[in-house]
Protein backbone atom coordinates (compact mmCIF):
# COMPACT_ATOMS: atom_id res chain seq x y z
CA UNK A 1 0.00 0.00 0.00
CA UNK A 2 1.30 3.44 -0.97
CA UNK A 3 2.33 5.64 1.97
CA UNK A 4 0.09 8.68 2.41
CA UNK A 5 1.64 11.58 4.32
CA UNK A 6 -1.75 13.26 4.71
CA UNK A 7 -3.00 10.34 6.81
CA UNK A 8 -0.18 10.93 9.28
CA UNK A 9 -1.19 14.60 9.26
CA UNK A 10 -4.73 13.54 10.14
CA UNK A 11 -3.30 11.45 12.96
CA UNK A 12 -1.61 14.60 14.27
CA UNK A 13 -4.95 16.43 14.44
CA UNK A 14 -6.52 13.46 16.23
CA UNK A 15 -3.83 13.06 18.88
CA UNK A 16 -3.53 16.79 19.58
CA UNK A 17 -7.30 17.00 20.03
CA UNK A 18 -7.22 14.18 22.59
CA UNK A 19 -4.20 15.51 24.48
CA UNK A 20 -5.55 19.07 24.69
CA UNK A 21 -8.95 17.75 25.77
CA UNK A 22 -7.41 15.71 28.58
CA UNK A 23 -5.43 18.80 29.61
CA UNK A 24 -8.69 20.72 29.88
CA UNK A 25 -7.58 23.44 27.48
CA UNK A 26 -10.27 25.93 26.50
CA UNK A 27 -11.70 25.34 23.03
CA UNK A 28 -11.11 21.58 23.07
CA UNK A 29 -14.24 20.43 24.92
CA UNK A 30 -14.90 17.85 22.19
CA UNK A 31 -11.30 16.76 21.75
CA UNK A 32 -12.21 13.22 22.73
CA UNK A 33 -13.45 12.75 19.14
CA UNK A 34 -9.79 12.34 18.20
CA UNK A 35 -10.23 8.70 19.20
CA UNK A 36 -13.06 8.35 16.69
CA UNK A 37 -10.79 9.74 13.98
CA UNK A 38 -8.15 7.17 14.98
CA UNK A 39 -10.76 4.42 14.65
CA UNK A 40 -11.59 5.49 11.08
CA UNK A 41 -7.91 5.67 10.14
CA UNK A 42 -7.23 2.23 11.63
CA UNK A 43 -10.19 0.65 9.85
CA UNK A 44 -9.13 2.18 6.55
CA UNK A 45 -5.44 1.26 6.74
CA UNK A 46 -5.93 -2.27 8.03
CA UNK A 47 -8.56 -3.08 5.41
CA UNK A 48 -6.48 -1.57 2.60
CA UNK A 49 -3.50 -3.74 3.56
CA UNK A 50 -5.64 -6.87 3.89
CA UNK A 51 -7.33 -6.27 0.52
CA UNK A 52 -3.97 -5.86 -1.16
CA UNK A 53 -2.76 -9.16 0.32
CA UNK A 54 -5.97 -10.98 -0.59
CA UNK A 55 -5.77 -9.75 -4.19
CA UNK A 56 -2.18 -10.95 -4.45
CA UNK A 57 -3.03 -14.21 -2.64
CA UNK A 58 -0.53 -13.40 0.11
CA UNK A 59 -2.96 -13.22 3.02
CA UNK A 60 -1.80 -14.83 6.25
CA UNK A 61 -3.50 -14.29 9.59
CA UNK A 62 -0.19 -15.02 11.34
CA UNK A 63 1.51 -12.29 9.31
CA UNK A 64 -1.28 -9.90 10.24
CA UNK A 65 -0.98 -10.59 13.97
CA UNK A 66 2.80 -10.30 13.71
CA UNK A 67 2.49 -6.82 12.20
CA UNK A 68 0.04 -5.77 14.90
CA UNK A 69 2.38 -7.08 17.61
CA UNK A 70 5.32 -5.16 16.12
CA UNK A 71 3.27 -1.98 15.85
CA UNK A 72 1.45 -1.97 19.19
CA UNK A 73 3.14 -4.04 21.86
CA UNK A 74 6.73 -2.74 22.23
CA UNK A 75 5.77 0.87 22.99
CA UNK A 76 2.82 -0.27 25.10
CA UNK A 77 5.06 -2.59 27.15
CA UNK A 78 7.57 0.21 27.84
CA UNK A 79 4.82 2.60 28.93
CA UNK A 80 3.20 -0.05 31.15
CA UNK A 81 6.53 -0.96 32.74
CA UNK A 82 7.46 2.68 33.41
CA UNK A 83 3.99 3.62 34.62
CA UNK A 84 3.87 0.62 36.96
CA UNK A 85 7.15 1.63 38.61
CA UNK A 86 5.86 5.18 39.08
CA UNK A 87 2.57 3.86 40.43
CA UNK A 88 4.39 1.69 42.98
CA UNK A 89 6.21 4.70 44.42
CA UNK A 90 3.50 7.34 44.08
CA UNK A 91 0.12 5.69 44.63
CA UNK A 92 -1.53 4.95 47.97
CA UNK A 93 -2.65 1.33 48.47
CA UNK A 94 -6.27 1.79 47.41
CA UNK A 95 -5.32 3.50 44.15
CA UNK A 96 -2.46 1.09 43.48
CA UNK A 97 -4.83 -1.83 43.90
CA UNK A 98 -7.19 -0.25 41.38
CA UNK A 99 -4.25 0.41 39.07
CA UNK A 100 -3.26 -3.25 39.36
CA UNK A 101 -6.73 -4.29 38.23
CA UNK A 102 -6.48 -2.00 35.23
CA UNK A 103 -3.01 -3.39 34.42
CA UNK A 104 -4.43 -6.92 34.30
CA UNK A 105 -7.18 -5.77 31.96
CA UNK A 106 -4.71 -4.01 29.64
CA UNK A 107 -2.57 -7.14 29.43
CA UNK A 108 -5.71 -9.10 28.53
CA UNK A 109 -6.81 -6.47 25.95
CA UNK A 110 -10.03 -5.93 27.85
CA UNK A 111 -9.44 -2.58 29.53
CA UNK A 112 -12.49 -1.14 27.77
CA UNK A 113 -14.61 -3.64 29.70
CA UNK A 114 -12.77 -2.86 32.95
CA UNK A 115 -13.31 0.89 32.65
CA UNK A 116 -16.91 0.35 31.59
CA UNK A 117 -17.44 -1.38 34.94
CA UNK A 118 -15.59 1.42 36.77
CA UNK A 119 -16.11 5.19 36.72
CA UNK A 120 -17.44 7.01 33.67
CA UNK A 121 -14.89 8.36 31.18
CA UNK A 122 -15.67 11.99 32.02
CA UNK A 123 -15.72 11.62 35.81
CA UNK A 124 -13.16 13.36 38.01
CA UNK A 125 -12.00 10.02 39.43
CA UNK A 126 -11.19 8.78 35.93
CA UNK A 127 -8.80 11.68 35.36
CA UNK A 128 -6.40 10.12 37.87
CA UNK A 129 -6.37 6.68 36.22
CA UNK A 130 -3.01 6.33 34.40
CA UNK A 131 -4.27 3.63 32.01
CA UNK A 132 -7.71 5.04 31.24
CA UNK A 133 -6.77 5.79 27.62
CA UNK A 134 -5.98 2.15 26.88
CA UNK A 135 -9.69 1.45 26.47
CA UNK A 136 -9.41 2.52 22.82
CA UNK A 137 -6.48 0.15 22.24
CA UNK A 138 -8.62 -2.68 23.59
CA UNK A 139 -11.43 -1.79 21.17
CA UNK A 140 -9.00 -1.83 18.25
CA UNK A 141 -7.40 -5.11 19.33
CA UNK A 142 -10.81 -6.75 19.64
CA UNK A 143 -11.60 -5.50 16.13
CA UNK A 144 -8.28 -6.80 14.80
CA UNK A 145 -8.94 -10.19 16.35
CA UNK A 146 -12.15 -10.79 14.38
CA UNK A 147 -12.23 -8.52 11.35
CA UNK A 148 -9.39 -10.10 9.27
CA UNK A 149 -10.99 -13.52 9.61
CA UNK A 150 -14.39 -12.14 8.59
CA UNK A 151 -12.98 -10.25 5.61
CA UNK A 152 -10.95 -13.23 4.40
CA UNK A 153 -13.93 -15.56 4.81
CA UNK A 154 -16.18 -13.27 2.78
CA UNK A 155 -13.46 -12.79 0.16
CA UNK A 156 -13.05 -16.50 -0.45
CA UNK A 157 -16.82 -17.07 -0.61
CA UNK A 158 -16.93 -14.58 -3.52
CA UNK A 159 -20.70 -14.88 -3.98
CA UNK A 160 -21.32 -12.57 -1.04
CA UNK A 161 -21.07 -8.82 -1.57
CA UNK A 162 -18.53 -7.73 1.05
CA UNK A 163 -19.53 -4.08 0.94
CA UNK A 164 -23.16 -4.88 1.72
CA UNK A 165 -22.17 -7.13 4.62
CA UNK A 166 -19.92 -4.43 6.09
CA UNK A 167 -22.61 -1.81 5.56
CA UNK A 168 -25.17 -3.94 7.40
CA UNK A 169 -22.73 -4.56 10.26
CA UNK A 170 -21.91 -0.85 10.53
CA UNK A 171 -25.59 0.12 10.50
CA UNK A 172 -26.33 -2.51 13.15
CA UNK A 173 -23.52 -1.23 15.37
CA UNK A 174 -24.70 2.38 14.99
CA UNK A 175 -28.27 1.33 15.74
CA UNK A 176 -27.07 -0.53 18.83
CA UNK A 177 -25.23 2.60 19.95
CA UNK A 178 -28.43 4.62 19.70
CA UNK A 179 -30.40 1.88 21.47
CA UNK A 180 -27.93 1.82 24.37
CA UNK A 181 -28.24 5.58 24.70
CA UNK A 182 -32.02 5.34 24.81
CA UNK A 183 -31.67 2.65 27.49
CA UNK A 184 -29.40 5.01 29.48
CA UNK A 185 -26.50 2.56 29.11
CA UNK A 186 -24.09 5.44 28.51
CA UNK A 187 -20.89 3.78 29.73
CA UNK A 188 -21.56 0.55 27.83
CA UNK A 189 -22.18 2.61 24.71
CA UNK A 190 -18.97 4.57 25.19
CA UNK A 191 -16.53 1.75 25.93
CA UNK A 192 -17.68 -1.48 24.30
CA UNK A 193 -16.74 -2.78 20.86
CA UNK A 194 -20.34 -3.47 19.83
CA UNK A 195 -21.28 0.22 19.79
CA UNK A 196 -17.88 1.39 18.52
CA UNK A 197 -17.37 -1.09 15.67
CA UNK A 198 -19.24 1.08 13.16
CA UNK A 199 -16.52 3.74 13.37
CA UNK A 200 -13.82 1.23 12.43
CA UNK A 201 -16.15 -0.27 9.83
CA UNK A 202 -16.59 3.20 8.31
CA UNK A 203 -12.87 3.19 7.57
CA UNK A 204 -13.06 -0.37 6.30
CA UNK A 205 -15.94 0.51 3.98
CA UNK A 206 -13.96 3.44 2.65
CA UNK A 207 -11.08 1.08 1.80
CA UNK A 208 -13.49 -1.34 0.10
CA UNK A 209 -14.93 1.48 -2.01
CA UNK A 210 -11.42 2.32 -3.33
CA UNK A 211 -11.60 6.15 -3.35
CA UNK A 212 -8.22 6.34 -5.10
CA UNK A 213 -9.99 5.02 -8.23
CA UNK A 214 -12.75 7.64 -8.23
CA UNK A 215 -11.92 9.72 -11.28
CA UNK A 216 -15.32 11.30 -11.93
CA UNK A 217 -14.91 14.17 -9.46
CA UNK A 218 -12.95 17.24 -10.56
CA UNK A 219 -10.13 18.63 -8.42
CA UNK A 220 -12.15 21.58 -7.16
CA UNK A 221 -14.91 19.30 -5.84
CA UNK A 222 -12.41 16.97 -4.18
CA UNK A 223 -10.69 19.89 -2.45
CA UNK A 224 -14.05 21.23 -1.30
CA UNK A 225 -14.98 17.85 0.20
CA UNK A 226 -11.61 17.67 1.97
CA UNK A 227 -12.24 21.15 3.40
CA UNK A 228 -15.68 20.00 4.56
CA UNK A 229 -14.05 17.04 6.31
CA UNK A 230 -11.63 19.26 8.19
CA UNK A 231 -14.42 21.67 9.16
CA UNK A 232 -16.49 18.77 10.53
CA UNK A 233 -13.62 17.51 12.68
CA UNK A 234 -12.64 20.94 14.00
CA UNK A 235 -16.30 21.81 14.60
CA UNK A 236 -16.75 18.63 16.64
CA UNK A 237 -13.65 19.45 18.70
CA UNK A 238 -14.90 22.93 19.53
CA UNK A 239 -18.66 22.44 19.87
CA UNK A 240 -19.17 18.99 21.39
CA UNK A 241 -18.51 18.45 25.09
CA UNK A 242 -18.77 15.84 27.84
CA UNK A 243 -22.53 16.32 28.04
CA UNK A 244 -23.04 15.43 24.37
CA UNK A 245 -24.52 11.91 24.04
CA UNK A 246 -21.60 9.97 22.61
CA UNK A 247 -21.09 7.91 20.58
CA UNK A 248 -24.39 8.62 18.85
CA UNK A 249 -25.39 10.22 15.57
CA UNK A 250 -23.19 13.09 16.80
CA UNK A 251 -20.21 10.79 16.23
CA UNK A 252 -21.08 10.77 12.53
CA UNK A 253 -19.65 14.30 12.40
CA UNK A 254 -15.97 13.43 13.07
CA UNK A 255 -16.29 10.02 11.41
CA UNK A 256 -17.63 11.55 8.19
CA UNK A 257 -15.01 14.28 8.44
CA UNK A 258 -12.19 11.72 8.66
CA UNK A 259 -13.65 9.72 5.75
CA UNK A 260 -13.86 12.83 3.56
CA UNK A 261 -10.24 13.78 4.25
CA UNK A 262 -8.95 10.26 3.60
CA UNK A 263 -11.01 9.94 0.42
CA UNK A 264 -10.50 13.35 -1.14
CA UNK A 265 -7.43 15.04 0.33
CA UNK A 266 -4.91 15.87 -2.41
CA UNK A 267 -1.34 16.57 -1.26
CA UNK A 268 -1.21 19.45 -3.73
CA UNK A 269 -4.31 21.16 -2.31
CA UNK A 270 -4.49 23.52 0.67
CA UNK A 271 -5.62 20.80 3.11
CA UNK A 272 -3.07 18.39 1.70
CA UNK A 273 -0.23 20.88 2.10
CA UNK A 274 -1.23 21.46 5.72
CA UNK A 275 -1.51 17.77 6.56
CA UNK A 276 1.63 16.86 4.61
CA UNK A 277 3.72 19.56 6.24
CA UNK A 278 6.82 18.39 8.06
CA UNK A 279 5.47 19.33 11.49
CA UNK A 280 2.10 17.60 11.07
CA UNK A 281 3.62 14.44 9.62
CA UNK A 282 6.20 14.40 12.40
CA UNK A 283 3.50 14.57 15.07
CA UNK A 284 1.52 11.93 13.20
CA UNK A 285 4.47 9.56 13.20
CA UNK A 286 4.86 9.81 16.98
CA UNK A 287 1.08 9.99 17.60
CA UNK A 288 0.83 6.45 18.98
CA UNK A 289 3.61 6.96 21.52
CA UNK A 290 2.32 10.44 22.37
CA UNK A 291 -1.13 8.99 23.01
CA UNK A 292 0.38 6.31 25.27
CA UNK A 293 2.54 8.67 27.33
CA UNK A 294 0.29 11.68 27.91
CA UNK A 295 -2.36 10.11 30.16
CA UNK A 296 0.01 8.60 32.77
CA UNK A 297 1.82 11.95 33.02
CA UNK A 298 -1.45 13.85 33.40
CA UNK A 299 -2.84 11.34 35.92
CA UNK A 300 0.23 11.41 38.18
CA UNK A 301 0.39 15.20 38.01
CA UNK A 302 -3.25 15.47 39.08
CA UNK A 303 -2.73 12.85 41.74
CA UNK A 304 0.26 14.55 43.33
CA UNK A 305 -1.04 18.12 43.10
CA UNK A 306 -2.61 19.82 46.10
CA UNK A 307 -4.67 21.98 43.74
CA UNK A 308 -5.96 21.54 40.19
CA UNK A 309 -3.00 21.74 37.77
CA UNK A 310 -3.00 24.91 35.68
CA UNK A 311 -2.33 25.42 31.97
CA UNK A 312 1.39 25.98 32.57
CA UNK A 313 1.75 22.66 34.39
CA UNK A 314 -0.11 20.84 31.63
CA UNK A 315 2.07 22.54 29.02
CA UNK A 316 5.18 21.22 30.76
CA UNK A 317 3.62 17.74 30.96
CA UNK A 318 2.76 17.86 27.25
CA UNK A 319 6.33 18.89 26.40
CA UNK A 320 7.61 15.94 28.43
CA UNK A 321 5.12 13.64 26.68
CA UNK A 322 6.48 14.82 23.32
CA UNK A 323 10.06 14.10 24.39
CA UNK A 324 9.13 10.62 25.60
CA UNK A 325 7.13 9.99 22.42
CA UNK A 326 10.05 10.99 20.19
CA UNK A 327 12.39 8.72 22.16
CA UNK A 328 9.85 5.90 22.10
CA UNK A 329 9.27 6.22 18.36
CA UNK A 330 12.96 6.12 17.42
CA UNK A 331 14.29 3.66 20.00
CA UNK A 332 11.31 1.39 20.70
CA UNK A 333 8.78 1.46 17.87
CA UNK A 334 11.15 1.60 14.90
CA UNK A 335 13.67 -1.10 15.93
CA UNK A 336 10.93 -3.66 16.52
CA UNK A 337 9.48 -3.12 13.05
CA UNK A 338 12.63 -4.45 11.38
CA UNK A 339 12.47 -8.20 10.81
CA UNK A 340 16.24 -8.31 10.48
CA UNK A 341 16.56 -7.40 14.16
CA UNK A 342 13.62 -9.32 15.54
CA UNK A 343 12.25 -12.41 13.84
CA UNK A 344 8.60 -13.39 14.00
CA UNK A 345 9.19 -15.99 16.70
CA UNK A 346 11.24 -13.50 18.71
CA UNK A 347 8.47 -10.88 18.48
CA UNK A 348 5.85 -13.35 19.65
CA UNK A 349 8.09 -14.54 22.50
CA UNK A 350 8.86 -11.02 23.71
CA UNK A 351 5.23 -9.96 23.34
CA UNK A 352 4.01 -12.95 25.30
CA UNK A 353 6.62 -12.40 27.99
CA UNK A 354 5.73 -8.71 28.36
CA UNK A 355 1.99 -9.36 28.56
CA UNK A 356 2.33 -12.24 31.01
CA UNK A 357 4.71 -10.18 33.18
CA UNK A 358 2.30 -7.24 33.30
CA UNK A 359 -0.63 -9.58 33.97
CA UNK A 360 1.21 -11.22 36.87
CA UNK A 361 2.36 -7.84 38.23
CA UNK A 362 -1.26 -6.72 38.23
CA UNK A 363 -2.37 -9.86 40.05
CA UNK A 364 0.38 -9.31 42.62
CA UNK A 365 -0.82 -5.76 43.23
CA UNK A 366 -4.37 -6.98 43.68
CA UNK A 367 -3.38 -9.80 46.04
CA UNK A 368 -1.04 -7.50 47.96
CA UNK A 369 -3.88 -4.97 48.43
CA UNK A 370 -1.73 -2.17 47.08
CA UNK A 371 1.31 -3.06 49.24
CA UNK A 372 0.64 -0.78 52.23
CA UNK A 373 3.97 -1.77 53.82
CA UNK A 374 5.70 0.54 51.33
CA UNK A 375 4.92 3.43 53.69
CA UNK A 376 6.08 4.43 57.14
CA UNK A 377 2.49 4.30 58.40
CA UNK A 378 0.95 1.23 56.71
CA UNK A 379 -1.95 1.03 59.17
CA UNK A 380 -2.84 4.62 58.38
CA UNK A 381 -2.73 3.97 54.64
CA UNK A 382 -4.88 0.85 54.85
CA UNK A 383 -7.53 2.79 56.75
CA UNK A 384 -7.65 5.59 54.13
CA UNK A 385 -10.15 3.68 52.01
CA UNK A 386 -13.77 4.07 51.07
CA UNK A 387 -16.56 1.54 50.93
CA UNK A 388 -15.56 -1.74 49.26
CA UNK A 389 -18.90 -1.56 47.44
CA UNK A 390 -18.53 2.04 46.23
CA UNK A 391 -18.03 1.24 42.55
CA UNK A 392 -20.74 -1.41 42.59
CA UNK A 393 -23.40 0.55 44.47
CA UNK A 394 -22.72 4.25 43.81
CA UNK A 395 -24.28 5.36 40.54
CA UNK A 396 -23.88 8.24 38.09
CA UNK A 397 -24.76 9.36 34.58
CA UNK A 398 -27.89 8.72 32.58
CA UNK A 399 -27.39 4.94 32.84
CA UNK A 400 -27.89 5.10 36.58
CA UNK A 401 -28.95 2.25 38.85
CA UNK A 402 -32.69 2.29 39.32
CA UNK A 403 -33.88 2.33 42.95
CA UNK A 404 -35.11 -1.24 42.47
CA UNK A 405 -31.58 -2.25 41.37
CA UNK A 406 -29.76 -0.51 44.20
CA UNK A 407 -27.61 -2.30 46.78
CA UNK A 408 -28.99 -3.60 50.04
CA UNK A 409 -26.86 -3.93 53.20
CA UNK A 410 -26.77 -6.44 55.04
CA UNK A 411 -29.82 -7.81 56.83
CA UNK A 412 -32.88 -9.35 55.23
CA UNK A 413 -35.43 -6.90 56.61
CA UNK A 414 -34.88 -3.52 54.94
CA UNK A 415 -35.96 -0.85 57.40
CA UNK A 416 -33.46 1.92 56.57
CA UNK A 417 -32.36 3.82 53.47
CA UNK A 418 -29.69 6.39 52.69
CA UNK A 419 -30.21 9.08 50.06
CA UNK A 420 -27.61 11.51 48.78
CA UNK A 421 -24.45 12.06 46.78
CA UNK A 422 -21.00 10.50 47.15
CA UNK A 423 -20.71 11.81 50.73
CA UNK A 424 -23.26 9.22 51.90
CA UNK A 425 -21.60 6.14 50.35
CA UNK A 426 -19.37 5.29 53.31
CA UNK A 427 -22.05 6.37 55.77
CA UNK A 428 -24.41 3.85 54.17
CA UNK A 429 -21.91 1.01 54.47
CA UNK A 430 -21.03 1.87 58.08
CA UNK A 431 -24.69 2.15 59.04
CA UNK A 432 -25.38 -1.15 57.30
CA UNK A 433 -22.74 -2.79 59.49
CA UNK A 434 -24.47 -1.46 62.60
CA UNK A 435 -27.90 -2.56 61.42
CA UNK A 436 -26.67 -6.07 60.67
CA UNK A 437 -26.19 -6.57 64.40
CA UNK A 438 -29.91 -5.89 64.83
CA UNK A 439 -30.94 -8.13 61.90
CA UNK A 440 -32.03 -5.07 59.96
CA UNK A 441 -31.05 -4.01 56.45
CA UNK A 442 -30.49 -0.82 54.50
CA UNK A 443 -31.20 0.36 50.94
CA UNK A 444 -28.30 2.37 49.50
CA UNK A 445 -29.31 5.21 47.16
CA UNK A 446 -26.51 7.55 46.06
CA UNK A 447 -25.67 9.42 42.86
CA UNK A 448 -22.31 11.07 42.16
CA UNK A 449 -22.37 14.86 42.43
CA UNK A 450 -26.15 14.92 42.64
CA UNK A 451 -27.84 17.65 44.70
CA UNK A 452 -31.38 17.24 46.11
CA UNK A 453 -32.78 18.12 42.69
CA UNK A 454 -36.52 17.71 43.10
CA UNK A 455 -37.38 21.28 42.06
CA UNK A 456 -34.65 22.07 39.50
CA UNK A 457 -32.65 20.48 36.71
CA UNK A 458 -29.21 19.49 37.96
CA UNK A 459 -25.94 19.99 36.13
CA UNK A 460 -25.09 16.28 36.35
CA UNK A 461 -26.79 14.28 33.55
CA UNK A 462 -29.39 11.89 34.95
CA UNK A 463 -29.30 13.37 38.46
CA UNK A 464 -32.70 15.05 38.54
CA UNK A 465 -34.51 12.04 37.07
CA UNK A 466 -32.75 9.70 39.50
CA UNK A 467 -33.53 11.90 42.52
CA UNK A 468 -37.22 12.07 41.68
CA UNK A 469 -37.37 8.31 41.13
CA UNK A 470 -35.51 7.67 44.39
CA UNK A 471 -37.78 9.88 46.50
CA UNK A 472 -40.90 8.40 44.89
CA UNK A 473 -39.57 4.91 45.53
CA UNK A 474 -38.95 5.67 49.20
CA UNK A 475 -42.45 7.11 49.55
CA UNK A 476 -43.89 3.84 48.28
CA UNK A 477 -41.76 1.56 50.47
CA UNK A 478 -43.82 0.94 53.59
CA UNK A 479 -41.12 -1.32 55.05
CA UNK A 480 -38.55 1.49 55.10
CA UNK A 481 -39.11 3.48 58.30
CA UNK A 482 -35.90 5.55 58.48
CA UNK A 483 -34.11 7.60 55.80
CA UNK A 484 -30.69 9.22 56.23
CA UNK A 485 -29.95 12.01 53.74
CA UNK A 486 -26.74 13.92 53.12
CA UNK A 487 -25.09 15.97 50.41
CA UNK A 488 -21.98 17.99 49.67
CA UNK A 489 -24.05 21.13 50.14
CA UNK A 490 -21.45 23.88 50.13
CA UNK A 491 -19.46 22.45 47.22
CA UNK A 492 -22.62 22.57 45.12
CA UNK A 493 -23.55 26.06 46.30
CA UNK A 494 -20.14 27.75 46.32
CA UNK A 495 -17.57 25.48 44.70
CA UNK A 496 -14.65 23.33 45.79
CA UNK A 497 -11.75 24.22 48.06
CA UNK A 498 -9.29 23.96 45.19
CA UNK A 499 -7.01 26.71 46.48
CA UNK A 500 -7.16 26.17 50.22
CA UNK A 501 -8.01 28.04 52.32
CA UNK A 502 -10.88 29.81 50.61
CA UNK A 503 -14.28 30.90 51.81
CA UNK A 504 -17.45 31.12 49.74
CA UNK A 505 -17.94 34.59 48.39
CA UNK A 506 -21.30 36.00 47.37
CA UNK A 507 -21.20 35.45 43.64
CA UNK A 508 -19.32 32.40 42.34
CA UNK A 509 -20.82 30.32 39.56
CA UNK A 510 -22.98 27.67 41.18
CA UNK A 511 -22.04 24.03 40.78
CA UNK A 512 -25.44 22.40 40.83
CA UNK A 513 -27.38 23.68 37.81
CA UNK A 514 -26.88 25.34 34.43
CA UNK A 515 -30.56 25.63 33.54
CA UNK A 516 -31.47 29.03 34.95
CA UNK A 517 -29.43 31.66 33.14
CA UNK A 518 -29.87 35.19 34.41
CA UNK A 519 -31.24 34.23 37.82
CA UNK A 520 -29.21 35.77 40.69
CA UNK A 521 -27.01 33.42 42.69
CA UNK A 522 -28.94 34.14 45.88
CA UNK A 523 -32.19 33.06 44.20
CA UNK A 524 -30.57 29.88 42.92
CA UNK A 525 -29.33 29.01 46.39
CA UNK A 526 -32.83 29.54 47.74
CA UNK A 527 -34.13 27.17 45.06
CA UNK A 528 -31.56 24.60 46.19
CA UNK A 529 -32.72 24.97 49.79
CA UNK A 530 -36.40 24.75 48.85
CA UNK A 531 -35.66 21.55 46.93
CA UNK A 532 -33.82 20.04 49.91
CA UNK A 533 -36.61 21.11 52.24
CA UNK A 534 -39.19 19.59 49.88
CA UNK A 535 -37.28 16.29 49.91
CA UNK A 536 -37.37 16.22 53.70
CA UNK A 537 -41.05 17.22 53.82
CA UNK A 538 -42.12 14.51 51.39
CA UNK A 539 -40.26 11.81 53.30
CA UNK A 540 -41.76 12.96 56.59
CA UNK A 541 -45.23 13.01 55.02
CA UNK A 542 -44.66 9.41 53.90
CA UNK A 543 -44.22 8.42 57.55
CA UNK A 544 -40.43 8.18 57.59
CA UNK A 545 -38.05 9.21 60.35
CA UNK A 546 -35.56 11.47 58.57
CA UNK A 547 -31.93 11.94 59.63
CA UNK A 548 -30.23 14.97 58.06
CA UNK A 549 -26.43 14.76 57.85
CA UNK A 550 -24.78 18.16 58.25
CA UNK A 551 -21.72 19.09 56.10
CA UNK A 552 -18.65 16.92 56.46
CA UNK A 553 -15.50 18.94 57.35
CA UNK A 554 -13.15 19.33 54.39
CA UNK A 555 -9.37 19.00 54.42
CA UNK A 556 -6.87 21.31 52.73
CA UNK A 557 -5.51 18.38 50.73
CA UNK A 558 -5.98 14.70 49.97
CA UNK A 559 -4.80 12.80 53.04
CA UNK A 560 -3.10 10.16 50.90
CA UNK A 561 -0.87 12.87 49.43
CA UNK A 562 0.35 13.74 52.91
CA UNK A 563 1.67 10.26 53.59
CA UNK A 564 2.72 9.06 50.14
CA UNK A 565 6.24 9.95 48.96
CA UNK A 566 6.76 13.71 48.57
CA UNK A 567 6.62 15.44 45.23
CA UNK A 568 7.55 18.88 43.97
CA UNK A 569 3.84 19.50 43.59
CA UNK A 570 2.88 19.33 47.27
CA UNK A 571 4.49 20.08 50.60
CA UNK A 572 2.22 18.58 53.26
CA UNK A 573 3.66 16.08 55.69
CA UNK A 574 2.25 13.44 58.06
CA UNK A 575 3.12 15.64 61.03
CA UNK A 576 0.22 18.05 60.50
CA UNK A 577 -2.50 15.42 60.12
CA UNK A 578 -3.82 16.08 63.63
CA UNK A 579 -4.86 19.67 62.89
CA UNK A 580 -5.69 19.90 59.21
CA UNK A 581 -8.32 22.65 59.52
CA UNK A 582 -10.02 24.57 62.29
CA UNK A 583 -13.59 24.26 63.49
CA UNK A 584 -13.91 28.04 63.11
CA UNK A 585 -13.09 27.73 59.42
CA UNK A 586 -15.64 24.93 59.09
CA UNK A 587 -18.36 27.13 60.61
CA UNK A 588 -17.50 30.04 58.31
CA UNK A 589 -17.14 27.90 55.19
CA UNK A 590 -20.57 26.29 55.65
CA UNK A 591 -22.38 29.25 57.24
CA UNK A 592 -25.12 29.45 54.60
CA UNK A 593 -26.25 25.83 54.79
CA UNK A 594 -25.67 25.50 58.54
CA UNK A 595 -28.08 28.35 59.19
CA UNK A 596 -30.66 26.72 56.93
CA UNK A 597 -30.27 23.27 58.46
CA UNK A 598 -30.46 24.68 61.99
CA UNK A 599 -33.86 26.18 61.12
CA UNK A 600 -35.46 22.78 60.48
CA UNK A 601 -38.10 21.63 63.03
CA UNK A 602 -36.17 18.78 64.63
CA UNK A 603 -38.15 16.55 66.94
CA UNK A 604 -39.61 13.05 67.16
CA UNK A 605 -39.34 12.24 63.44
CA UNK A 606 -36.67 14.66 62.20
CA UNK A 607 -33.12 14.36 63.51
CA UNK A 608 -29.77 16.10 62.91
CA UNK A 609 -26.50 14.20 62.44
CA UNK A 610 -23.53 16.54 62.89
CA UNK A 611 -20.21 15.03 61.72
CA UNK A 612 -18.23 17.96 63.13
CA UNK A 613 -19.38 17.06 66.65
CA UNK A 614 -17.75 13.64 66.21
CA UNK A 615 -14.66 14.69 64.28
CA UNK A 616 -13.72 18.19 65.48
CA UNK A 617 -12.80 19.90 68.73
CA UNK A 618 -10.98 23.19 68.12
CA UNK A 619 -9.47 21.57 65.03
CA UNK A 620 -10.74 18.98 62.57
CA UNK A 621 -8.07 16.28 62.17
CA UNK A 622 -7.46 13.93 59.30
CA UNK A 623 -6.39 11.14 61.66
CA UNK A 624 -7.92 9.93 64.91
CA UNK A 625 -6.85 6.97 67.06
CA UNK A 626 -4.28 5.99 64.43
CA UNK A 627 -6.86 5.74 61.64
CA UNK A 628 -7.44 7.98 58.64
CA UNK A 629 -10.83 9.68 58.84
CA UNK A 630 -10.83 10.39 55.09
CA UNK A 631 -9.66 8.72 51.91
CA UNK A 632 -9.18 12.00 50.03
CA UNK A 633 -9.78 15.65 50.96
CA UNK A 634 -13.55 15.57 51.53
CA UNK A 635 -14.88 11.99 51.53
CA UNK A 636 -14.94 10.07 54.79
CA UNK A 637 -13.11 6.79 55.00
CA UNK A 638 -14.93 3.81 56.45
CA UNK A 639 -13.15 4.52 59.73
CA UNK A 640 -14.45 8.09 59.70
CA UNK A 641 -17.96 7.01 58.76
CA UNK A 642 -18.04 4.46 61.57
CA UNK A 643 -17.32 7.18 64.13
CA UNK A 644 -20.47 9.00 63.02
CA UNK A 645 -22.88 6.16 62.34
CA UNK A 646 -23.52 5.22 65.94
CA UNK A 647 -25.51 8.45 66.11
CA UNK A 648 -28.68 7.53 64.16
CA UNK A 649 -29.27 4.37 66.19
CA UNK A 650 -29.15 6.36 69.42
CA UNK A 651 -32.35 8.24 68.54
Automatic annotation (TrEMBL):
InterPro entries in the cross-refs: Acyl_transf_3_dom, Acyltransferase_3, SGNH
Ranges where the Acyltransferase domain occurs: 6-328
Keyword Transferase included in the entry's annotation: yes
UniProt domain SGNH: residue ranges: 393-644
UniProt signal peptide: none
Keyword Acyltransferase part of the UniProt annotation: yes
Protein name: Peptidoglycan/LPS O-acetylase OafA/YrhL, contains acyltransferase and SGNH-hydrolase domains
Coiled coil: none
Gene Ontology biological process terms in this record: lipopolysaccharide biosynthetic process
Organism encoding this protein: Methylobacillus rhizosphaerae
GO molecular function, one term: hydrolase activity
Keywords of this entry: Acyltransferase, Hydrolase, Transferase
Pfam short name (any one): Acyl_transf_3
GO cellular component: a single term: membrane
